[in-house]
Amino acid sequence: MQETEKIWMNGELVDWADAKVHVGVHGLHYGSGVFEGIRCYETPKGPAVFRLTDHMQRLHNSARLLSMELPYSVSELRDATLELVAHNGLPECYIRPIAFYGYGQLGVAARDNPIETVIMSWPWGAYLGDEGLRNGIRVKISSWQRIGPNVVPHVSKATGVYLNSMLAVTEANKAGYDEAILLTAEGYVADGSGENVFVVKDGVIHTPSLATGILPGITRNAVTEIAQDLGYRVEQAQLIRSDLYLADEVFMTGTAAEVTPIRSVDDHELGVGPITLEIQRTYLEVVRGRNDRWGDWLEYPSSSPAPAGA
Ligand code: PMP
């Protein structure tokens, strides 16, 4: 991780090295936190944060499911992020807001623990590599099931959920694959360790429905709108592993992974298809401020020039 100058912590910008907590914090012991992953892109009008308000709204929803009352509103967190981005002065960065139960008592029920709220930012290139973005990645179906909606609500982007993801991606990497796809206990395709999944078959695009108990990805939503605007039908579906093996194209979406083609699933070779590449190209134009159709999705720090017409 490349260090940057400041981290926003509980209302203040503090030096990177000083953003510390005690080893007794509740969140460390029990995974009782919620977080977000957001990207800030270099655009012709300066750095712009993609769908910042939507991400902060999801952070609030995640916290609500954990009965965690965040001490900052969506708009306060939005302003804090823009202040941090402006201060650190990077043209592009990844942004990681996190809130967790802090130091107090260590019973499992976090009764009076304070809530620590932190926003970090640092440069982070292509999550699955530049080569992966261009030529696609190799994916393995995980032997670990995705946690069910009555186990831990995955609709909450809670830190503890990511142990399930970590097991899956570690298994895949050890077996020589780039990423994992997890299935539900019933055998439906859920998602990647940190991405949503799309399948193209006969010109129609399918993605697991929210009823699968997946995280409602903001990139998933953006890609759905973009694909529909490009003239494709996008269906929310129940997909099984053979749909992946028999697909014309498969790709993953996420803030970190952007739109990453999947060139093989369990060694079933799919290649990288034209629909994936068209959607990837359009998505990257949108986030880099080169497509005004979705200009509203970009939020600018006040030190940058305001978007045209704002
Ligand atoms: N699913 C999982 C499990 C994730 O961790 C992520 C990354 N936040 C996504 C999907 C994609 O979500 P988004 O597009 O909002 O980043």
Mean pLDDT: 95
**Unreliable stretches:** none
Quaternary form: single chain
Helix content: 25-40%
Q: What small-molecule ligands were found? A: 4'-deoxy-4'-aminopyridoxal-5'-phosphate
| Number of separate helices | 8
Anisotropy-based shape: globular
Determine the strand fraction and express it as a percent band.
25-35%
Largest sheet report: 9 strands, mixed
Give the beta-strand count: 17
The rounded distance between the terminal residues' Cα atoms is 35 Å
Backbone CA Rg: 19 Å
Strand-pairing-aware structural class: alpha+beta
Order of helices and strands: EEHEEEHHEEHEHEEEEHEHEEEHE
Key descriptive features of the protein:
binds 4'-deoxy-4'-aminopyridoxal-5'-phosphate; 310 residues; 17 strands; alpha+beta; single chain; 28% strand; eight-stranded antiparallel β-sheet; globular; nine-stranded mixed β-sheet; 8 helices
